[in-house]
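This is your field. Have a critical look at the following sequence-structure pair:

***
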Amino acid sequence: MKKSLLAILLVLLAVGCFHESVMAADTKGTVDPVSGKPCYQCHRSKITALYVHEAVAGKECTPCHQVAAGSHQSDKTLFAVKDKSAKLCQECHESQAAPKSVHPVIESDGCIGCHAPHNSPLKRLLRFEVPRLCFECHDRGLVEQKETAKGTGFRDGVQNLHYLHAGEKNGLPCLACHDVHASSQLHLMRTKGSVGKDAVTIVYSATDKGGNCAVSCHDALGYERK
């Protein structure tokens, strides 16, 4: 009988220790100074996805959010984002401001124009898959119109060179030639293309009415808008 009671007590003690360790783990992270509860207990959706931003994977909100006493349900400024521009992201990520051309969406909307700040079902926390993501801002006519007089600056006369490269016949993805963040070349032109085992090199130069492109997949060619 005594052995049975001792066994029960040991089990209860083990369960109690396990419960305490779970509770300790369950309360880590940024804590609301008013309720005393970790933020993620009410905002679990921010940390539950296939890909979670490393900044919040440890359930810490303070790298990006202010924390102040008060009801943030009624006053949204109490836990506001510290800075909605790309400057906040650049506290951890490399700045994209130095290269010759920078993706305009970074300058206008910061990084959240393309990336979800907390989590995403997609790699790199993308909001949508490419090319859908690109066409959230860019007109699909870029790759659907064979000829255009103003739909794109990348045209020879009225021949749409975006269509020639990325239209239904050749179907090169946008990222084959363009960098998503910034480039040492104008128009976000990559120095090294992203397609194929041996990705092509790209040397691009602009002119007043067009440009010249020397790539390893075809001879050096120029174009001029009419």
Confidence is low (pLDDT under 50) at residues 8-25. Residues 2-26 form the longest helix (25 residues). The first strand starts at residue 51 and ends at 52. Helices lie at 2-26, 54-57, 86-89, 104-109, 141-144, 161-166.
